[in-house]
Amino acid sequence: MKTAALTVVGLLGALCLCLRTEANTAWDLLRQSAVNWTGNLPCGGWDCDCEFRKPKGCCCVARPLFELEEATFMRMVGLWEGLTDLNEQIDEVTGGRNVAFAAFLSSTPGCFGPFTRNVSIPYQNITLNQGYGYNAALGAFTAPRAGLYSFSYTVYSNVGPAGERLYLKVQLMKDGQVIASSWEDNREDSEDSATQMVLLQLKQGNQVYVELVSGRFLCTDTQGYNSFSGFLVYPLTDVPV
Ligand SMILES: *[C@@H]1O[C@H](CO)[C@@H](O)[C@H](O)[C@H]1NC(C)=O
Ligand SMILES: *[C@@H]1O[C@H](CO)[C@@H](O)[C@H](O)[C@H]1NC(C)=O
Ligand SMILES: *[C@@H]1O[C@H](CO)[C@@H](O)[C@H](O)[C@H]1NC(C)=O
User: Fold this and answer.
1) Do 34 and 107 belong to one domain?
2) Of 88, 98, 140, 152, which residue is 20 to 30 A from 120 by alpha carbon distance?
3) What positions does the domain C1q occupy (predicted)?
4) 132 and 30: one domain?
5) Judgement on whether residues 32 and 120 belong to the same structural domain of the protein
6) Domain with 129 in it: what CATH number?
7) Is residue 122 domain-shared with residue 28, that is, in the same domain?
């Protein structure tokens, strides 16, 4: 038993290199009690020396090292949380940025119109619809998010032989409000086309569409001559009314 205790003390000395130099009976007693103790020690047993005397030895760095490790870990957790936050913010800014559509009036024999009211033109041949803002059934684009948008349309009509009346008027609308329009009314020229391009600040849910004004008509049997397209230039958080 004594040998075992001495071995432990010897090991302590060899491991720790923090053997005291002065004799101290009270200290010896405390150390012996600690070494003899068979239950659990809060300081892990052999580093009780550090607890009592606070010396600066190699074995006594265990606690500061543990504290450093703990602090580093907490700092890493903090950094990780910060990065997660940043990622979410980036997603918020970049997510839903891909909004673009292009659609053509499908070639139909005869003319579209005339109607007794203003009718939105159903550009049914959708060639692009990123972000799914364009709805062919409505012929309308609904802004999936607030932002600055660019829209363009090209209107073309061919009424056939010279002398027929080329009579059309279309208008680009934003929620019932006329933004831009193109028109023709003549008999000298049986076919013509016009293009408009506009930039619009939209709130989420605003609708943009192209209307054929009542009484007018569009005649086109050629695919690709009548088009409507748009895209998000950049998102906005604050859109004036
Ligand atoms: C520690 O154990 C040894 C061996 O059993 C014994 O001689 C000694 O008195 C003990 N010391 C203390 C402080 O309990
Ligand atoms: C849709 O438009 C594309 C490109 O202009 C064309 O190649 C295709 O034939 C059109 N489809 C229909 C059904 O009109
Ligand atoms: C249709 O559009 C024309 C031209 O902008 C306008 O004068 C007329 O009031 C519109 N009709 C309806 C019912 O909105």
Assistant:
1) no
2) 98
3) 94-239
4) no
5) no
6) 2.60.120.40
7) no
Q: How many domains does the chain have?
A: 2
Nearest atom, ligand 3, residue 118 CA: 1
4 pocket-lining for ligand 1 (C-beta < 6 Å): no
Structural domain includes residue 84: no
- Does residue 33 form part of some domain? yes
Which residues approach ligand 3 with their CB closer than 6 A?
117-118, 171, 178, 213-214
pLDDT of 137 over the 80 cut? yes
133 domain residue, yes or no: yes
Mutation pick for ligand 1 pocket among 24, 29, 36, 37 (CB with most ligand atoms within 8 Å): 36
Over range 130-136, report the average pLDDT: 93
| Cβ neighbours around 212 below 10 Å, total | 23
Mean pLDDT of 177-202: 92
Question: Each residue of 194-221: pLDDT tens digit?
Answer: 999 999 999 999 999 999 999 999 988 7
Please report the pLDDT score of residue 12 as a whole number.
47
Q: Which atom of ligand 3 is nearest to the CA of 181?
A: 5
| Separation between Cα atoms, residue 19 and residue 9, nearest integer Å | 10
Domain hosting 24: range is 2-60
pLDDT tens digits, 92-120: 777 778 999 999 998 777 888 899 999 99
- 197 CB within 6 A, ligand 1: no
Residues near ligand 2 (Cβ within 6 A): 104, 106, 125, 127, 223-224
Q: Mean pLDDT, to the nearest integer, of 216-227? A: 86
CA of 33 to the centre of ligand 1 (A): 7
Q: Which amino acid is at 101?
A: F
Looking at the fold, whether 46 and 113 belong to one and the same domain comes out as: no
Closest residue CA from atom 7 of ligand 3:
213
